[in-house]
Every structure is written in C-alpha cells, then in structure tokens.
Amino acid sequence: MNKRVLVLLAGLALCVLTACAEKEKTPVPPPDLTGDWTQSIDEDWYQIATISEDKIEIWWYLASTGHKDLYWSGTFTPPTDSTEPYTWESRNHYTQEELDATYHYHRTSREEVKTFTYQDGKLSYNVTSGHLRLGFVLKRASE
Prior knowledge:
Blueprint: H1 3-23, E1 35-39, E2 45-51, E3 55-62, E4 67-75, E5 86-91, H2 96-102, E6 113-119, E7 122-129, E8 132-140
Antiparallel strand pairs: 1-2, 1-8, 2-3, 3-4, 5-6, 6-7, 7-8
C-alpha cells in the first residue's frame, strides 16, 4: 500500500477516535448554589446570603453584635447545566408597603428585580441602598 494512503488512513482513524472520545465525556453536573455565602472583607458591616431551592436572602450583618438587617429576599432559579457564567433574575418577595412596615428603609433593596451572576465559585450582584450602588462578591461561607 502506498505510504500516502497509509498516512491518510491513520489521520482519518485519529480524527474518528478523537470525535468518539469527545462524545463519551461525562457531562458535568450544574453547580449546587444552595447554602450560605459571605462577603470576604475585613469590615464590621458586610453581607451574608443563604440560597435555598427557590429563594435567596441577603442580609447586612454586623459582626461585632451578630445583628442582621434584611437587604434582599427574592426568587432563585438553579442552573440546569455547568455553563459559566450563570446569571438569573431574582424577583423581590416583598411589596414596598411590606418593606416599609417591617425593614429599615436605607438597608433594604427596593428593586423589584435583581440580577445575580455565579462564576468561578463566586456570587456577584449590584447593591443598591439609598443612593449607594456598588458591586458585591460573595463566596461560600465554608471556604
């Protein structure tokens, strides 16, 4: 057999084997975002969060006293695959009247919808409180 034909057949066999190996890869499950999250800063006030199957709650936390003030309580939609970044829109669980009656105005978000992003093990979102607007990043509390 001609050397060119052998090289061509070997190349084709390699391509077929590589394609088959790609198809046989085990799919990566979506990340489990449920649990406790915390902002990693050395301040007395910072944010902590808890994500359950369908809810995310974020609190302003005063480390020196253990006092918590609600910042956000909204919906959580878990990822269905492992693609990152994973972004979801969370709808606020409270009406303006409920927030005004129960929580401190300056510390609780008045937004109807808040966008969250998960990437590289971190949860990020914008914080709005009064006239303040900052980007926050939280990581798993156990890390």
